[in-house]
Amino acid sequence: MNRLKTLFYLSFRIFSFGRKGVKLSRPLLGSIIGITLSLIPLVVVIHISDGMIRGITERTLETFSYHLQTYPYSTHTIEEMIEQAENLKNLPEVRNATVERQGYGLAYSQGGRDGVTIRAVEEDFYSSDSGVRQYISMEKGLFDISTADSIVIGRDLARKLNLEPGDELKILTGKFFSNGKFLPKVTRFIVKGVFSTGYDELDRMWAFMSLDTGTSILAENSSRAIIGIKTMKPYDNLREEMFAVRDALPKRWGIYTWESLNRSQQENFRTTKMMLIFIMALIVCVAVINISSSLVMLVLEKREEVAVLKCLGASPEDITLSYLITGLLTGITGTVLGTLSGIVISLKINEIISGVEAVLNSLISFFRLVAGSFIPLKESGTFELLNSAYYLDNVPVVIEPDQIIIIVSATLFLSILSSSIPAKRAGRVKPLEVLRKH
Fold first, then answer.
1. Membrane-crossing residues (predicted)?
2. Mean pLDDT of the chain
3. What is the C-alpha separation between 334 and 341, in angstroms, rounded?
4. Which pairing describes strands 206-210 and 150-154: parallel, antiparallel, or unpaired?
5. Out of 227, 274, 383, 427, which could bridge 319 as a Cys pair, Cβ 3.0 to 4.6 Å?
6. Are 136 and 143 in contact (CB under 8 A)?
7. Which residue ranges make up each domain of the chain?
């Protein structure tokens, strides 16, 4: 016990300088700052990337790909598929089931034209599903597809075609025949509402209409009808849910999970995240290695003290352990500061982004105001730090305790590892050689 107290006393003496030991040693202070500044972006990147991936994935599952999808390999009428969907709703594993026909068309109005993904859904698609209501927010108008000419479009499409609720929109669809001929069909709609999922990359081409209308304007050979299924626990293993749904369906029906439907997207997310983490981890490794150089400097500065301690009876192992503890204290201090700062910044990232955008837009406006007095400038939109076309409007933050534990453990392990060489060097100091020189 006395030896342990002595080791910690020596470590704190090395860790600080000054007669009263109230100030931190400058070489170690640099290491602590380096570890702190390197851990902050690592923690922020991990939490924000997890939140972005989870946010995009949840939006995709709840509004587009569903948790499970099933469709017949043979021809079935929409009425038959609706009947099957009603049967699936009775399963305890199923939260909701709805029929949807998906296809493509060309939307045009007086404001322009653009390709559109037609989503013909049941009338209660929006009102009966809490997941849909959570992630599809109506910016203008209502989600109303109660009539044959009603249509609800995405924010990006409305912006491109300069459409508002009440405006007319035409959609060109058609049917290809076996002889290569194409029979066009133009359908007029009235825009009832404009929506957004908060992620333009997902909804930029969507247009919702009634299931009957979509079935009438979309050819069977150029569209597909599915039953979208929502389960109770989509992120758990869906094996039991798949078996339950399969047993409730007739033969020759295909069934797919959201993971298989979005495999390429998820792989892309994971690869990007791992690359970012790898780059940030390298920075942390470099910062932690600075502990080694700091301790080398301390060993050189405190050679006289080490020599005196050895003359007073301190063993080489005691000196080595005291420097190892010093390196560990340095790592702990930097790790705690960096991790806590990273978590706080992650939790406040939306406010930080909004503040940075406000400051930058103010500076841009001031520059345009001043420069516009001398040279003509073109009109430009507001600056966005995270463009909503590629990122979420609001960054969700997911704090993962297990990842924090891994970061802290790895940093402390590297701190001890980088401290081992200078600690052993301190233990090998020969007191007689040092004292003869002084």
1. 28-49, 275-300, 320-347, 359-377, 404-423
2. 83
3. 10
4. antiparallel
5. 427
6. yes
7. 2-54+266-437, 75-251
**Amino acid occupying residue 433:** E
Task: Give the whole-angstrom CA distance, residue 225 versus residue 223.
Answer: 7
Total length of the chain: 438
The predicted-structure confidence for 317-328, as pLDDT tens digits, reads as follows: 777 787 788 888
Tokens at 37, concatenated: 């500044």
What's the confidence (pLDDT) of residue 18?
46
Q: Render the burial of 337-363: b for 16+ CB within 10 Å, e for the rest.
A: bbbebbbebbeebeeebeeeeeeeeee
Residue pLDDT, tens place only, 91-134: 999 999 999 999 999 999 988 999 999 999 999 999 999 999 99
Six-digit token pair at 122?
A: 């049941």
Model-wide pTM > 0.85: no
CA dist list (Å): 176 to 180, 211, 266, 399: 6, 21, 34, 51
Identity of the amino acid at 263: R
Alpha-carbon span 33 to 43, nearest angstrom: 15
Query: Quick one: three-class SS letters along the chain?
Result: CHHHHHHHHHHHHHHEECCCCCEECHHHHHHHHHHHHHHHHHHHHHHHHHHHHHHHHHHHHHHHHCCEEEEECCCCCHHHHHHHHHHHHCCCCEEEEEEEEEEEEEEEECCEEEEEEEEEECCCCCCCCHHHHHHCEEEEECCCCCCCCEEEEEHHHHHHHCCCCCCEEEEEEEEECCCCCEEEEEEEEEEEEEEECCCHHHHCCEEEEEHHHHHHHCCHHHCEEEEEEEECCCCCCCHHHHHHHHHHCCCCEEEEEHHHHCHHHHHHHHHHHHHHHHHHHHHHHHHHHHHHHHHHHHHHHCHHHHHHHHHCCCCHHHHHHHHHHHHHHHHHHHHHHHHHHHHHHHHCHHHHHHHHHHHHHHHHHHHHHHHCCCCCCCCCCCCCCCCCCCCCCCCCCCCCHHHHHHHHHHHHHHHHHHHHHHHHHHHCCCHHHHHHHC
Residue 136 one-letter amino acid: I
Token pair belonging to 283: 């920075």
pLDDT digits (tens, 9 = 90+) for 208-243: 999 999 999 998 878 899 999 999 888 888 888 888
Half-sphere exposure of 9 (CA within 13 A, CB side): 9
Burial 305-317 (b: 16+ CB within 10 A, else e): bbbebbeeebeee
Which residue from 405, 423, 337 is spatially nearest to 35, judged by alpha carbons?
A: 337
Report the relative pairing of strands 68-72 and 224-231 from DSSP bridges. Answer: antiparallel
